[in-house]
């Protein structure tokens, strides 16, 4: 590869014989380099290469606004995430997550708190991503001496999930917010509220996550009419609540929800309402 532009000590633009113009990221990769210098392609094995022109341009716009030390930490964090999940990450994580953390640090400097209303739900729904997010936040504290608020772990987890699943971060956020809205509706309709420490609650969150994903894929679930009739007769309140939840999902997602979902939701809701109910 030939260096075409040095953005800072850790990031350069290079001409790659296979991919054309690329953004090559690596600790000290730009130090002491000059334009047209040659870099052995093998040296890029542990570096990130942004092959998308759109991602390159966004990253180049972001770099002047972000401290070089943070760039270095984020590159290390993203590389570790990719290694741990053993799957390719969507390249946009370099822009989106770095930008999010930089903005979070600026908010901290100004004393602006930003609460995460669905932190607990995020931890339950995306446990692997949450664990990786904790690693990112801990690495920032270790390398930069800055302790981010616990709420930030949840936001970082959503960015990681977005990169793993190739889904836009806005869609991931919307689905998380939808789950939080559904949980609030359930809590309003259950006597005594919800115990978020139970296994049944975790099962409900997992079901809601996969139900939303099924709805978005247009994937049908099946349940017999006899089961639906039995549940409606034995647990009318929870069956009615299940239909309310389905209507909320239909409205928020703009997609139809198969009626069989009512049966599965009723089972989960009844478990929460009465341990001995089912």
From TrEMBL:
InterPro entries per the UniProt record, alphabetical: BglG_antiterminators (IPR050661), CAT_RNA-bd_dom (IPR004341), CAT_RNA-bd_dom_sf (IPR036650), PRD (IPR011608), PRD_sf (IPR036634), Transcrpt_antitermin_CS (IPR001550)
PRD domain ranges (all copies): 65-170, 171-278
Gene3D superfamilies per UniProt: 1.20.58.1950, 1.20.890.100, CAT RNA-binding domain, PRD domain
Coiled-coil parts of chain: none
Cited Pfam families: CAT_RBD, PRD
Ligase keyword on record: no
Domain of life: Bacteria
UniProt keywords, alphabetically: Repeat
UniProt record similarity statement: Belongs to the transcriptional antiterminator BglG family. GlcT subfamily.
Protein's name according to its UniProt entry: PtsGHI operon antiterminator
Organism annotation: Saccharibacillus kuerlensis
